[in-house]
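Retro notes - structure team

What went well: the batch runner handled both jobs without manual restarts.
What didn't: labels got mixed up in the shared folder, which is why I'm recording both outputs here explicitly, each with its sequence directly above its tokens.

Job 1
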Amino acid sequence: MNEAQTSQEDHYQRAILLADLRRTYDQSLDARVDRYLEVNPQYVIGNHYFAAASSECISLYRDGRFISTVMVSQTVNEGILKFVGERNGIPRCNHEEMIKHLKGKTILSEECLAASTGIWGTFRNDVHHMNPGIANVPVPFPILAKTNIQRLALIEKEIFAVEWVGGKLKPKQRKYWDVRDDGTVPVFLRMEA
């Protein structure tokens, strides 16, 4: 095959792939919008190390990537708890111990802690580490993904709650935001679906 034939073949394959992707996207568009609206995320969070992963988790759920949503929601949940622990002077520890510390010091609400524990309880070790036995367990990934992403939204809404005062963002819990000397705050915006 010469270069012209290869180029023509590549162009043809590209055209087929584009048509297939458009058809698939168009067929799934309503379901994607419905799933995004089910999440009801916190639209602005602190620009911390887990912010991009958290936002990607929302996109995974929107796009129907349920196994990945469960895995990423578990990871983000753990990252957020570590972050909250650090901001409150709690030494790093395992999830159960962190929950006990946060509960004992009433740092997070019972509802928030229950959401975090709920995410942790969604086959965390088997799914997160892709243990072979997970293939033999009937895991309802679409249901777990929806529940986990909604729990994660609840957690983020408590930690990153804000008010808008005179067009300016005012964090309700400043310790979870990196407020600069000039009063500005680095944020991670999630405005697009």
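Job 2
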Amino acid sequence: MTPLQRVSKSPFGRMPDGTAVDGYAIRNGRGTSMHVITYGGIITSLKTADRAGHFADIVLGYDNLEGYLKATPYFGAIVGRYANRIARGRFTLDGRTYQLPINNPPNSLHGGTRGLDKVVWSATPFESNTSGGVVLTYTSPDGDQGYPGKLDVRVTYTLDDHDKLTVEYVATTDKATPVNLAQHSYFNLAGDVDKDILGHVLQLDASRYTPVDSTLIPTGELAPVAGTPFDFRKPTAIGARIAQKHEQLRFGGGYDHNYVLDKSDSALRHAGRVVEPSSGRTLDILTDQPGIQFYSGNFLDGSITGKKGRVYKHRYGFCLETQHFPDSPNHPAFPSTILKPGERFQSRTVFVFGTDK
């Protein structure tokens, strides 16, 4: 019997300056497969089976590099140095104020105008008897996008035979600096996107969330979800309450909020579960991070034509980004995101794919 080739490499185009971008196809023994490119560490496709055993792509994206080089809403990318928003693009650390690019006025979003989603990473594939994947590395120089310190980042994607995709992050620095890394895939578990995600049933292990102001910056409050449209402690359709009159839904244009995950005895905790009733596909997320950003695709408006010529209309994808809280450098009461020399930022998130019979 021929051993399964779990990882294969192929070209995925060139950057405007001629830098080559490679793609890595990764598959497991159950037929689940994914494709990752070195530009932005982007997951360009992720194919899982429905309850009838039919495979389809469950993430939004483009067929070629040109699509990702255009204005893209971070489809499938690794975002950082600081995932999510920093108010006015400004923070003070050790008595010095740092100014970041304002790329989401009036704030800085996902690391600035050229964050980790817009650089070419180095890649090393690997295989074992039960898994395959790729290790991505990148060094962000001191002062990059206004951030202090040289930041060495390593992200490892591992797809195993239990249909688990593990994303591991490691970072070190030579100066104190804020670090918040996240994976920004847009999911639609119906597969081969042709309808919105409002019928997906979501459950989040979070009793509190961080309300925001009109610019989507946290107010500092950790508010209870009980009695609000933000309560997903029990499985609830994403669209069940999204149209309710609520100030926070108005600010976000729907859900675009960080949830405070309930504590557990384990470092790796269950964060949430999504079920798509028509296909039976399920997604469970486990993480060691304190928060998860739930985004309901509010800014998708039909202006993007993605893979196979599909138009991504309003709320055709959702994101569940495991993370530290937005704007933490400006909120001393939030869990700290400051990485210091000699320390090691380490984090792990696991996406578990399955079906609900």
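One thing worth noting from job 2: The mean pLDDT is 97.
We'll revisit the folder naming next retro.
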